[in-house]
Amino acid sequence: MTIPDLSPFTYKNINQLWADILTETLKRLGLNCVVICPGSRSTPLVVAFVQQAPDIEAISILDERSAAFFALGRAKATGVPVALVCTSGTAAANFYPAIIEAQASRVPLLILTSDRPQELRNCHSGQTIDQVKLYGNYPNWQAELAIPSPDMEMLGYLRQTIIHAWERCQHPTPGAVHLNIPFRDPLAPIPDGTDFSHLHSKLHPEDFFAGIANIHPIPRSPYPIPQQWLNSERGIIIAGVAQPQEAEKYCQAIAHLSQTLNWPVLAEGLSPVRNYTQLNPYLISTYDIILRNQQIAPELTPEIVIQIGEMPTSKELRNWLSTTTPQRWIIDSSHENLDPLHGKTTHLRISVEDIDTWENIKTEPGTYLQTWCEIDQEVSKNIDQIFANTDQIIESKVSWLISQILPPGTQIFISNSMPVRDVEYFWKPNNLEIKPYFNRGANGIDGITSTALGISHHQQSSILLTGDLALLHDTNGFLIKHKFIGHLTIILINNNGGGIFEMLPIAQFEPPFEEFFGTPQNIDFSQLSATYKIEHELITSWKQLTAKLQTLPQQGIRILELRTNRKTDAQWRKQTLNKLTQNIPNSF
After folding, report:
1. What's the pLDDT score for residue 359?
2. How far is CA 454 from the centre of its chain?
3. Contact by Cβ (8 Å): 68, 447
4. 237 partner at 20 to 30 Å CA-CA among 94, 279, 366, 400?
């Protein structure tokens, strides 16, 4: 009877053994997805990763920039590092924008760039650039691996380096790690004449990989609430942009803190807090609009501000905090400086879930809290009345409407520029447990479609809210269509240009505004959709949009296009945002 060879190693050549150990180590650490871009120099890695199926899903994507953002989205959705593989040369340079976003928004990515060996560099060998430290200071950690070797000590070095890279993707702050991996020929899994006999008696997989463990952070003890917080009635909690893996637990922690202190929670539209209103009776969603009222804003000046995570998008909020200069505390477990205002700030390097909120609970809401809640209710009522009576297709109503009609638990990726701002202004608090995602690290429009597809791959049916320029910037993202598992509905606001620039002073200068800032592309999106065999439908009424979103398909990609006038929409915002607090009394 022949005993089958259960070893994960093929012993075809040195490169393949090296790649086998690399991928086996990652599998045992918990890697379950790798995105691979085509090319020759990465052949050993590709062969090794494909052999790890089904434990590691290998996805081939042609365009490196789209591939990197797809991986970014997948890592956002799962919280587990995703590996990215490419060949040598400029292929690796196309990963750069997503790596910047991963660092800025704390998403774990493992970048594996294949390279030529040293003797083929700096001599005009084809498809060769300097890939060492290619991404500057953006990776959490970066290294170039040694040339593959069949020596046991070197194989141990490889294993431990991969373990360290995996850990640095996640701790102390998630982000990208870059490993540059040189390979000599032969690249294909063909014999290279190496004698591996000395390894058969030494390289036993279960012994070799015995020390591998996927280490999780050590839980902290509860952090006691500072007495300074408990002594103040005039305090606010700012729930900033956040993509927590356990959204309900995160929202509960903020709600407990709010009710312990009797402080209002100013919740950014990109925070899950707005979608768990049953947890928090002191939720304020219209703060940006309220603070535009120059009579009311000074009266609401706080003594203490607790900022949880990143600062919200709102420029009005930032200006108000800069003007009023309250004592501020930032709660975030990362090592980063999250205070762009450079105020009187104390950083607590903990998570909001680490705070002990079960002692010293106050019983009666104070006047300051009641004032915030009453004003928010009035402004929210005004917003509802305006949109309920708006039949015209305008950009801003989209965010207000979909916050009320999406199926419970829907994942939605919100594009940068105007969509994130309309969400902050008008996303109505709800109990639908909707999961917002976004790329607010570097705030670019590159890779939006690919990130959304990565988030929705293998997940429940999802939504992308985006504009025409962001969609056009990443149409190569649609190349994943035939391998994409799941459904993505794209709500496309087509205002034929960059609507956010209409809100800036440069909009008054023509020329050069329309050509160089508005940048209309005049694209027929029905024809674009047909090219990629993607379903397209032009939405002409709110009733039609509602019908399309209340139940989402299970498979495929579709575009629901709403055509708007960006100049009309910009004028509407300027007029309406300032009107919404006009009937609010400024005497408290």
Report:
1. 57
2. 10
3. yes
4. 400
